[in-house]
């Protein structure tokens, strides 16, 4: 058994898959790894679009479906639910397609003949997205604090000469109070 997250609620998965057996295999792998699972399976674009706004923890998408593919599904997911991890699960995906999916924002690609890697890929994608969200929030709080300080504050880098003596400094960032107090921008 793996390290299924203990969140007190089931893992909610939106699975875009046109082969019911493949969707069931993915479900079995996740349940065997210890996940309490709620999985909605859709096989086409209209059904995918209808469920896309739901509160899913992860999206699993087959690479190639009739009239629809993982790249198009990723494009939609990026618009509708940009913070939801997206993992392509495919039997036939080449290296170039994998690289393109990852460049476009997919969190991972898992081959159907290597489904044992799926629980790890999901955990990693969820943890990475949570870390990115926390970092973004931390940066937002820092920027708000920095910009609203009443005291002037300058973030600088010291320049050294060949002997290691400090000879100058460069302002990397200053807050509005620093600009008001010094007139320097």
Characterization of the model:
This protein has 185 residues and is α/β, with parallel strands linked by helices. Helix content is 43%, strand content 24%. It contains 6 helices and 9 strands. It has helices at 20-32, 45-51, 70-80, 95-104, 118-148, 176-182, and strands at residues 11-16, 37-42, 58-61, 64-65, 68-69, 86-90, 108-111, 154-160, 166-174. The strands form 3 sheets. It has a 5-stranded parallel β-sheet with strand order 2-1-3-6-7, sandwiched between helices. Strands 4-5 form a two-stranded antiparallel ribbon. Strand 6, helix 4 and strand 7 (108-111) form a beta-alpha-beta unit. The chain is elongated.
Quickly describe the structure.
This protein is of the alpha/beta class and 185 residues long. The chain contains 6 helices and 9 strands, in the order E-H-E-H-E-E-E-H-E-H-E-H-E-E-H.
Content of β-strand: 15-25%
What ranges have pLDDT less than 50 throughout 5 or more consecutive residues?
Answer: none
Task: Please tally the β strands and state the result.
Answer: 9
Helix-strand string: EHEHEEEHEHEHEEH
Biggest sheet strand order reads 2-1-3-6-7
Features:
alpha/beta, two-stranded antiparallel ribbon
What is the topology?
Elements: E1 11-16, H1 20-32, E2 37-42, H2 45-51, E3 58-61, E4 64-65, E5 68-69, H3 70-80, E6 86-90, H4 95-104, E7 108-111, H5 118-148, E8 154-160, E9 166-174, H6 176-182
Parallel strand pairs: 1-2, 1-3, 3-6, 6-7
Antiparallel strand pairs: 4-5, 8-9
């Amino acid at each position: 058994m793996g390290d299924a997250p203990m969140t007190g609620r089931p893992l909610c998965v939106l699975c875009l898959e046109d082969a019911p057996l493949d969707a069931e295999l993915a479900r079995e792998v996740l349940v065997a790894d210890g996940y309490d699972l709620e999985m909605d399976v859709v096989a086409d674009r209209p059904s995918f679009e209808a469920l896309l706004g739901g509160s899913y923890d992860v999206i699993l998408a087959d690479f190639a479906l009739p009239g629809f593919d993982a790249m198009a599904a990723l494009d939609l997911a990026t618009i509708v639910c940009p913070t939801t991890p997206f993992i392509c699960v495919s039997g036939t995906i080449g290296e170039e397609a994998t690289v393109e999916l990852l460049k476009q924002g997919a969190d991972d690609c898992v081959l159907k003949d290597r489904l044992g890697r799926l629980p790890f890929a999901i955990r990693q994608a969820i943890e990475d997205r949570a870390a990115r969200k926390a970092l973004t929030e931390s940066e937002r709080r820092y920027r708000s604090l920095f910009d609203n300080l009443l005291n002037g504050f300058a973030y600088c880098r010291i320049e050294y000469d060949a002997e290691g003596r400090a000879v100058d400094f460069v302002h990397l960032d200053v807050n509005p109070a620093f600009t008001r107090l010094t007139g320097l921008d």
